[in-house]
Amino acid sequence: MPGAALVRTCAALLACALALAACAHRGTSAPSGVLRVGVEVEPTTLAPILAESITDNEILRLIYDPLIGCDRLGNPVPALAAAVPTRANGGISADGLTIAYRLRRGVRFHDGRPFTSADVAASFRAVMDPRNPVATRHGYDVVARVETPDPYTIRFRLKRRFAPFIGTVFAESDSPYYVGPAPLLRGALVQAAIASAPVGTGPYRVVRWLHGDRLELAANASYWAGAPRIPRIVVRFIPDENSQLVGLQTGDLDAVIGLSASAAAQARTIPHVRIDASPTNGYFGFLMNTARGATADPRVRRAIAEAADAAAFRRDVTHGYYAPAIADLPTILWAADPALRPIAHDVAGARRLLEAAGYGAPRRLSLEIALVQQSQTFRSEAVLLQSELRAIGVEAHLHGYLSDTYSAPLAAGGILARGRYDIALYNWISGMDPDDSSQLTCAERPPNGYDQSFYCSAAMDAAQRDALASYDESVRKKAYARVEALLLRDVPIAYLGSPVKIAALRDDVGGFSPSLITRTANAERWTLRR
Questions:
Q1: How many domains are there within the chain?
Q2: Is pTM, for the whole model, over 0.70?
Q3: CATH code, domain with 82
Q4: For 317, which DSSP code?
């Protein structure tokens, strides 16, 4: 099978690279009390609301805190807030239009200034300031006004009920924003001092940022959750996964955060290295353009989904790391409906659907598949899918793009946002709340949101309204069962697997326990035995 063959070839090349590196270099003596972590992407900014990638968020979480965090299953836990707002404790008003937080006392920023409600209000204003190019204002834009009746209380008055608020606003969402100090959040943040010299409340403070090389952090001894157990962390920017693996092999790195499944399969063969693969709220699959071309026909979309072998993807491309997916919500999340069943791999059924749609020997179907060319996961799955489509009489042509072009907004000519594809491989990582409205409602089609399959359904919009308007978890769970059933019926997206967050750790690193969203969420409890 071509996809499996490509994965095996890449694995062999990586193994050779590791063997050569081990022969050439056996590492230097590891510094005591310094954890050396490799990441793929250097952040463009360290401002608390301007993260551009998952890796940016992992780094910012070392420096800043949210109001609300989450545990490994996505349950909310208090961070800068002293408690999670609920109706029972008065944090959510009876009409659902006021969300009030009591803030944790005794918290200080790295510069010694006390944390108060004024900092939360200033952080909110910074998110809403049009001069700041935040990734999204979803959830923040339902706020009518912010009130700070005292230094340890902040109230958000909403324009309408918005059930995901607590898991979205200054929480571990799909675009996490953190609370910064009010005096440093005035004006545009891109060029502000906080972008390069951050001041947070988090477990570590920035000592030095050597652009293109590393970020050096020191423990915040007065951290509200307890002084971190590791005195210093050095985050090294290593875009090449081969180099990351060599660093683990030689002992020049203690950990790598953000490995692909293919690299993890190699890393787990390195002596004294273990893999931590923790679940997340997300999916890997492919979008189908519902707005134009052959994929506007739901019969064609379902045929393509039935042709794709999700089990082969998980086995051959992700080396067994990814979990089975039903639709977009992982089975570990409270809102997932275990009664639903995924679309089955059915080659004969796919051929029948194509014939019903008017395609076959006299009228061959040709489709364009878009992918991120830097991603080995995307490349391997694209070749596999191309082969699977050929088996049902569909010719597919692959088109690789750089990731920034692929995911760019409409105004910047983004491939997905402009709909320049028939099928587009897609990886989505969401937040702690099951809210998926930004991908699936009519109003969220580009340029307004992430509905980049251009799916529009009155039934879906109605289900999403019900899910967003009630704070009752049982009501929301029923609404999301409708959402998931509609996705399986209309097939704007085919789901191949539920991703995991992967980290490789040498065996002297302990205490690593990611949340559902963030791998660095408990960094103050990490340990290093040397």
A1: 3
A2: yes
A3: 3.90.76.10
A4: I
